[in-house]
Amino acid sequence: MKKMMLIAISILYLTGCAAFEQTGPVHVKIHDGENGTVKEVAQRIEDTKELYDSVVVAADSTLVVSYKVKHMNRFQMKSIEKKMKRWLTEKYPEKEIVLSSDYKIFMELYAFSDKWNTGELNEQEAMKEIEKIIKLKKEMT
Amino acid sequence: MADHWITQSKAAADAHELKRPVLKNCIKAFLVGGIICTIGQLVTLLLMLYFPFTEQTAGNPTVAIMVFFSMLLTGFGLYHKLGQFAGAGSAVPVTGFGNAVVSAAIEHRSEGLVLGVGGNIFKLAGSVIVFGVISAFIIALIKTVLFQLGVI
């Protein structure tokens, strides 16, 4: 019984840790010419000390940004998001901007970037995937 | 005269009463409640990994699953052992709600399905629902008014 408890607790602990591991910043540009955008946004996230780990996906009409917030800064998550959103909308007023600190969105974007980098998707399919992720992000209940 | 006797006997009884181990109970409740919440977090994580739920939308199904777990445990007669050990640690998380519903249903099963189970199933948990709905209504009202006034 005691052994089982120990095993169960350690499994819980390890899975908890795995979720917040840094998987490395990932930058994806769907259309050529978005290189600068991706770099700027990634740099800005790197400069914000409350954040770590980012996925930036840029197409010519949309910009999807996902990041993780450091644990003790999770209390200020809303104000961080507001600040980032304001900065992005000022900088790229012609783009649809989707900003999320949600872990699920992060995972989906990460999986998407993997697929894109291996060349599984063409441009159209990629835009469809992005639309799907944006739809998931907008779901409230 | 009678008053004097009562205070005297009360003092005598107090002297023999065992001291409650408050700190120990608190630590037990803290640990068990924390483990229950960690399991809840694991459920959230699994929902996010294997189903299309985001952090925002995974909350409600997690609550439902945790209540379901505690209902099963209550049915198997395991939850009251945990409750005896942990006290409030097992009652305060949402699992306590499932326990309250099912234990009331089991207790009144002998009085029949309709008047027994149906009439008494929310005997303990009913107040949770009533005050939950009322407070949600009041908060929503305040929020709506503030929105209309343009404060937020």
TrEMBL record, chain A:
Keywords: Lipoprotein, Signal. Residues 1-18 form the signal peptide. This is YhcN/YlaJ family sporulation lipoprotein. It comes from Jeotgalibacillus terrae.
From TrEMBL, chain B:
The chain crosses the membrane at residues 29-51, 63-79, 86-106, 121-142. It comes from the Bacteria. Coiled coil: none annotated. Keywords: Membrane, Transmembrane, Transmembrane helix. Pfam families: SpoVAC_SpoVAEB. InterPro entries: Spore_V_AC, SpoVA. NCBIfam families: spore_V_AC (TIGR02838). This is Stage V sporulation protein AC. It comes from Jeotgalibacillus terrae. The lineage of its organism: Bacteria, Bacillati, Bacillota, Bacilli, Bacillales. The gene is spoVAC.
